[in-house]
Amino acid sequence: MSQEKRKSIENAIWLCANCSIDIDRDEDRYSTALLNEWKIKAEDIARIELGRKLPSNDDAINSVSAALTGFPKSYISTAISNVHKASEKSLEMLDPRFLVKTSHDNGKTSIGIYAKENVQCSMKISSEHAKQYIEKYQQLFEHGKDLEIDSDAITIEGSKLLEEIFGTTKGVFSISSRKMEATQKLWLVQDETNVIESFDDIKGVISFGVKSFTFEGDSCNKLFSFSYQKSLDEKDDKANISMSLCFEQWDGASIMFLPYYEKLYSLYKKMSEGWVLFTSLEINGIRVLLSKGMTVSKWDYVLDTVSFLHYINYSKVVSDSFNWDIRFVSDVSYTSDEFRQICDVSDVLNGKQVYEEGAITSNATCELIVGQNCLNINELSKIDQAISMKMVQSEGEDILIFGKQFTLPPKIIALDYVLPKIHAEIATLKENDIVKVEWLPQSNFKCEVKYET
Description:
Blueprint: H1 3-7, H2 17-25, H3 32-49, H4 57-69, H5 79-94, E1 98-105, E2 108-115, E3 122-125, H6 127-143, E4 147-150, E5 154-157, H7 160-168, E6 172-175, E7 179-189, E8 196-198, E9 202-208, E10 212-219, E11 224-231, E12 239-245, H8 261-272, E13 276-283, E14 286-290, E15 294-295, H9 300-322, H10 336-349, E16 354-355, E17 365-369, H11 375-381, E18 387-392, E19 398-401, E20 404-407, E21 411-422, E22 434-451
Antiparallel strand pairs: 1-2, 3-5, 4-6, 7-8, 7-9, 7-13, 9-10, 10-11, 11-12, 13-14, 13-15, 16-22, 17-22, 18-21, 19-20, 21-22
Helix pairs in contact: 8-9, 9-10
């Protein structure tokens, strides 16, 4: 290196006194290229450390204390990542041919093992798990579906790393196919009007096998899952589609504030009503697959799911009207009578039980107890112009909603523009007799069912 280059700031490097002498005396061992490589690495590390607090003298003591006792004396911001890095490095030292990544979530530790080069190992499957493994491996090879099997069923030889993991840890062994990020688009079209309703993008991944590929994705914060398997044969245009809702996410929440409920209810309601379902697959914004229109209104899954979503909707109406605190329970069960009851209550509260004369199949009737000297019946018999009247339940009915019992207010049947017809010979009536009275609809008749407020 020339004198000018030695003086240049570009070739400057900080060294301790001992190292500088050693490097100056051994040019073959410490080449210019090596020193420049060291310098670049040192500068990169310095940039990463910019703005970070230097470790205190206590950090090392606290780290050792935590390692020995299992309890940290104080919070160290890098402690968690350091533990993972240390674990990964320890495992990688057992077999440098692999890259190891560890994680811990919801009480489960995951160890990802990635080969840096071709690695040959022997794997033995216990006889009782052999059939299961072969079937799952076939699904992985042909359709790209991940293989999972109990680690107890496997013995691996040829790698100290794998032998260590499988020899000391009980868990699940998984072989994953390569994944490609993709987006599934979903929209509905009403045949008669061509009105279009789009659903949220479904983010997911594609896994490829030699015979088909599989898409798996979700939306609405993982409440809605969508997957399908499609043959790679261009002549086969069929796909096995699966949809599901993770109702457990709503457990314990007020039914008035269920995340994404309105969006999901609209989707399933329209599917059940015969709206045509379309879907397309996009990779990096490029459409690679477009489905034909599908009518899914007769799918059992769609009908069962929309029925439960209807139940939730009726419950929301009741909760809002009576200010009842109703909490969601994913595994709730109810009878057909209970479903009809809450549907009926919801209709009443929404003002849907209002009828004109042509909408009723029979006239309203009631029973009256004859009063003293038959005065009440005589008064009724004199009415010759249409009146309004109402009948009120003596007490409200009980109703079970999401496993919790409530009592409804008394129900009211209000009749407008009616005339009474007494089904008895008034002259023969005595006090405390029971008389049937029929209410005859007149012009502008209206019957409304509602609840007492």
